[in-house]
Amino acid sequence: MPSFFRRKILILVLVAFIIFVTLIGFSIRERENISAPERFILDTTGVLQSIIHTPVEWVDNSIETFQDVLRVYEQNEVLKERLAEYEGLIVENQELEEEVEELRGTMERAEGLEKYSPVQASVIARSPEKWFEQVTINRGSKHGVEKDMAVITKEGLIGKVQSTAAFHSTVKLLSGFDTSNKISSWVVKKNGDNVFGLVEGYDEESGRLLLGGINLDVKLKKGEKVISTGLGGVFPSRLQIGTVDEVKNDEYGLTKTAYIEPAADLYEINQVIIARRSVQQGKASKEENS
């Protein structure tokens, strides 16, 4: 009995297969008109294909969109890294250019110290407690540096050596000068009739040097340059100190005091030159009134 049913099922499958193949062969023939069953099958198949194709296409497009977003994100991350590297190179290049320019300026300034033996040095430290008063440089007595030697940058005078060790020295900045650290100076006039004065302090409130001892009958103009006279043998002559910014009578009305804008930046100092005196100059007297 079971064998009969198996044969019957096999026969039905074969008949259905033959009918299916016959329909396929009939449908693929080139005809202008198709039968009603074929139209029904075609429409049904089209509807089913549309139903299946729409979500499949949406999923496929979504996957492509996600992959595109992922690629854009990865490319964006790479560009960010390269941009950061590029910005770092720009900053490093600017710093190197500034350092080269500063070194070039100090070398040019050193060439003007004919009667001195310039010693180039770098600032290695600034004390937080005395940030505006002194710096530490990497040259000392082993390099011929001595106390009271003038220290300059490419812009001009910044101070003098306060103390020395074998390989390091402390520099007292102009912003730390007082009446015990005077600098004999000239206010340069266009007609050549320079005006003498003494840099004798620093006004912390305005950030300017104080040039005192100026006669009442002398007229000074804003912007006139102030240079060192070289008297006393401590500071070389004609070093740029600053420019006249304002002039006032002193409290007693006997002389005038000029407020001088420093030529050199006293806050950002990296490369300096120590004006090392010769043997003969070393035996000269210290700066007058110091």
From TrEMBL:
GO CC term, one of those recorded: plasma membrane
GO biological process: regulation of cell shape
Domain of life from the UniProt record: Bacteria
Coiled-coil segments on the chain, per record: 76-113
Keyword Membrane found: no
Presence of keyword Coiled coil: yes
Domain (Rod shape-determining protein MreC beta-barrel core) ranges: 123-275
Database matches in InterPro entries: Cell/Rod_1 (IPR042177), Cell/Rod_MreC_2 (IPR042175), MreC (IPR007221), MreC_beta-barrel_core (IPR055342)
Keywords: Cell shape, Coiled coil
Stored PANTHER family: CELL SHAPE-DETERMINING PROTEIN MREC
Family that this chain belongs to: Belongs to the MreC family.
Reported function: Involved in formation and maintenance of cell shape.
Protein name: Cell shape-determining protein MreC
Annotated organism of origin: Salimicrobium jeotgali
Lineage: Bacteria, Bacillati, Bacillota, Bacilli, Bacillales
